[in-house]
């Protein structure tokens, strides 16, 4: 029972971290594109 709850929490945390990293990645990519576009002008 405890093991099952713990694994569910762990999976939820993993999903949250993946989501956070994806958002961070998208933000960094957008920022990089913005900087490159500014440099090209």
Q: What's the number of helices? A: 1
The SSE string, one letter per element, is H
Percent of residues in β-strands: under 5%
Number of strand elements: 0
- Please report the distance between the alpha carbons of the first and last residues: 61 Å
Which radius of gyration do the C-alpha atoms yield?
A: 18 Å
Main pleated sheet? none
Shape: rod-shaped
The average pLDDT value, as a whole number, equals 91
Give start-end ranges of low-pLDDT stretches: none
**Which range best describes the helical content: under 10%, 10-25%, 25-40%, 40-55%, 55-70% or over 70%?**
over 70%
Question: Strands, helices and their partners?
Answer:
Layout: H1 2-40
Question: How would you sum up this structure, described in words?
Answer:
The protein is mainly alpha-helical. Helix content is 95%, strand content 0%. It has 1 helix and no strands. The longest helix has 39 residues, at 2-40. The model has no long low-confidence stretch (mean pLDDT 91).
Could you give a short description of this structure?
By secondary structure, the protein is mostly helical.
């Amino acid at each position: 029972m405890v093991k099952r709850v713990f694994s569910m929490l762990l999976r939820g945390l993993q999903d949250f971290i993946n989501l956070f990293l994806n958002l961070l990645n998208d933000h960094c990519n957008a920022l990089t594109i913005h900087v490159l576009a500014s440099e090209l002008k």
